[in-house]
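Notes taken during the Thursday session

The instructor put the following on the board and asked us to keep it in front of us for the whole hour. The protein is Protein-S-isoprenylcysteine methyltransferase. We were told not to look anything up and to reason only from what is written here. First, the residues (143 in total):
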Amino acid sequence: MRFWGIEPKVALFAFPYALLAFYLNSALGLQTLRFPEVGAVLVIVGVALWLICYLQVSKAYREGELLTEGCYSRVRHPIYSIWGLLIIPGFSFTIGGFMLGLPMVYWFAVVKFIGDEEKALEERFGDGWREYAERTPRFLPRL
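Then, after some discussion, the predicted structure tokens were revealed:
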């Protein structure tokens, strides 16, 4: 599996919905159900956290190592979680209308394709991955 994991598949799945939502919002003149201030905060926090995780995983990927520390010590897929819980919802709150359904479409695609990425990681890292996956939740940290 390449560095971007399942993200291209998820984007190809979610992008048509986003286009349709933009079209419907425009065609129907929807200006309701918008929360731009909340959306902006979610996007700003999400991008900052994404950058931290991206820098960590980029270094590990270049070195051919399984990353189990930092952001990856709490969940196996923090970048997908950040996009699905902060950035995409923030964007959706800012746009509003039909765009509010985009996070659900995103999560549907992530859940549909995540097995492919985890299989590739297991093949590459073997027992190290299996032990890590056993003790670390996929998307939400344990309390």
